[in-house]
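Supplementary notes for students who missed Thursday's class. We covered one full example, reproduced here. Read the sequence, then the structure, then the short commentary at the end.
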Amino acid sequence: MFQFLLGVDSSREKWALAIKDALSERLDSNCLVALSKLGKRYQVAIASETSNKAMILEAISDSVIKTLAYFCKYEYLRSNLTLPLDELNYNILLHALVQFDRASEEDVLKNCIQICDGMALDGIYRFRLGVLKERWREIATLTKENALYLADLETFYELIKFLFSSIDAQIENVILSKNNGEYVISEEHSHKTIFSSLDVNEIIYKLIDCAPLSIAVNKSFENENTIELITKIFGMRQSKANFS
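Structure (token representation):
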């Protein structure tokens, strides 16, 4: 039997959830993936037959790298980037900056950390990411130095579009809709739900994270202000067709 544990402190529950969800989706039903809380820490446990070890380790490595690349950068910038922007625009910029240059940062992470049983993700953030933290410090400093320009909405959206143009797409085509009061992002062809929220702003942030190649809007979405904002940020095709 092959077993693997990784943990994170309770203040970073989302890190553990993201890894657990990614592994549950990627690994087959013969692999057990469980999330539990032990004291002040969350643990993700993976168990399977030894014959699956190589495949599982590869999946764990991919999930850990992608999770750390996102959440560590998000936490660092959130803590070190203060700007005179309203909450919506601040979060739009924050998510765009987090996604900017993610591919190269994931490569750096692969060289910074070793995937091993019992690894502590918060420890990696504190002690192993000096190279990346220096890069993120430069991003925060440069952004703060240009804060006055960002108060101009036209300049702000030009920056967002520039950042977004460099973000690798995580999914090809999505549909926005509204169902039972929740705003929903779903994959266009399979109609699989990618994300849903009662807060329409969370939909904007998730779209930046996913960086789809195209966005279609179901007429049920019924939020003209958000559709206008999506057009400003993404400049992608918009459709009001009634998708079945």
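Commentary. Confidence is low (pLDDT under 50) at residues 237-244. The radius of gyration is 19 Å. If anything here is unclear, bring it to office hours.
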